[in-house]
């Protein structure tokens, strides 16, 4: 019996195993293509057409006309700048506060007490978004909200006539939403940093103490470098979510074009579904411009963090 005849069954068995392994990937690939790749390709195609969902006329290819119209519209740049402002307000809070809390909780020696702290921090993260919006909209209420009640009746810093107008498209609306978002994700972001602290070898801080390093030096040269990968993930992810916020703006700001909450996401939604024309092709171009701008900044952030790492 030849060697080839002996190895042939083994090759067939290995081939069947390989095919079975790839078969397990078929559901994931099908989900990715149907739920991720196809919608993106569809939106890219729509951005080059005059597609209108309610129109009986077939969509016509218009090239870069939608992009030229969007980039020449001052509202496009104003809406991108408003989203950037909100991101600049939100990102420091979702990094600095969770980092401080994670370091404090990591130093709690009692395991039961440390677990209690973790559970308390995670409570906001498990509250449904609808309840969070209702809660904070009531807290920011101009007349009956507890924040203005404290400022007016308890502290006496304002009167009912000049009390802060947190919502309604004022200059305080974006900071108010940023505070809500920081509170909502505080526990979730703290857990990220706690996981990063657990991955830092315990002998590094001990060696730094033996060498005479103080708390600040240990944080700057030991803790912070060890948390840099976690910080990179949080900054990149939260940058993307902050730039693409839409639900909060719709609830707290509406469709007033002069409102600071009228960002590029609201501009896109307004063009696609709110205005009578329903210009889905133009709205798709707005969305692609915003997405490309976000990806460029994300690439820069990744390069910055990798260089520091």
Give structural notes.
- With 309 residues, the protein is mostly helical.
- The protein has 2 domains: 1-46; 63-308, MetI-like fold, CATH 1.10.3720.
- Helix content is 73%, strand content 0%.
- The protein has 14 helices and no strands.
- Helix 4 packs across helix 13 and helix 9 (186-199) packs across helix 11 (215-243).
- The longest helix has 33 residues, at 74-106.
- The protein is flat and about 75 Å long.
Low-confidence stretches: 1-6
The major beta sheet can be summarized as:
none
* CATH first level of the largest domain: Mainly Alpha
Name the CATH architecture of the largest domain. Orthogonal Bundle
As a percent range, the share of strand residues is under 5%
Number of helices: 14
CATH topology of the largest domain: MetI-like fold
- Mind telling me the CATH superfamily name of the largest domain? MetI-like
Global shape: flat
Specify the helix fraction band: over 70%
Number of structurally distinct domains: 2
Would you list the SSEs in sequence order as H and E?
HHHHHHHHHHHHHH
Class inferred from helices and paired strands: mainly alpha
Name the average pLDDT: 85
For the terminal residues, how far apart are their CA atoms?
A: 60 Å
């Amino acid at each position: 019996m030849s060697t080839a005849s002996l190895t042939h069954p083994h090759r067939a068995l290995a081939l069947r195993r390989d095919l079975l392994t790839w078969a397990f990937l078929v559901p994931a690939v099908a989900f990715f293509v149907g739920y991720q790749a196809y919608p993106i390709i569809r939106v890219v195609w729509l951005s080059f057409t005059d597609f209108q969902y309610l129109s009986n006329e077939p969509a016509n290819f218009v090239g870069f006309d939608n992009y030229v119209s969007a980039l020449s519209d001052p509202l496009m740049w104003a809406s991108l700048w408003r989203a950037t402002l909100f991101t600049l307000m939100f990102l420091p809070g979702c990094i600095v506060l969770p980092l401080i809390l994670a370091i404090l909780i990591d130093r709690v020696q009692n395991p039961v007490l440390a677990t209690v702290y973790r559970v308390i921090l995670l409570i906001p993260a498990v509250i449904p978004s609808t309840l969070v919006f209702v809660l904070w909209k009531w807290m920011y209420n101009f007349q009956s909200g507890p924040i203005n009640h404290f400022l007016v009746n308890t502290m006496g810093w304002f009167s009912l006539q000049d009390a802060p107008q947190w919502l309604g498209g004022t200059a305080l609306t974006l900071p108010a939403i940023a505070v809500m978002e920081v509170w909502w994700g505080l526990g979730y972001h703290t857990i990220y940093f706690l996981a990063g602290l657990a991955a830092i070898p315990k002998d590094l801080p001990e060696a730094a103490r033996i060498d005479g390093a103080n708390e600040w030096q240990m944080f700057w040269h030991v803790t912070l470098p060890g948390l840099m990968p976690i910080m990179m993930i949080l900054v990149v992810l939260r940058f993307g979510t902050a730039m693409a916020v839409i639900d909060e703006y719709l609830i707290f700001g509406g469709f007033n074009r002069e409102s600071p909450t009228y960002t590029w996401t609201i501009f896109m939604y307004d063009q696609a579904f709110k205005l009578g024309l329903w210009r889905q092709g133009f709205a798709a171009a707005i969305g692609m411009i915003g997405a490309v701008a976000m990806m460029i900044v994300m690439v820069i952030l990744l390069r910055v963090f990798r260089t520091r790492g």
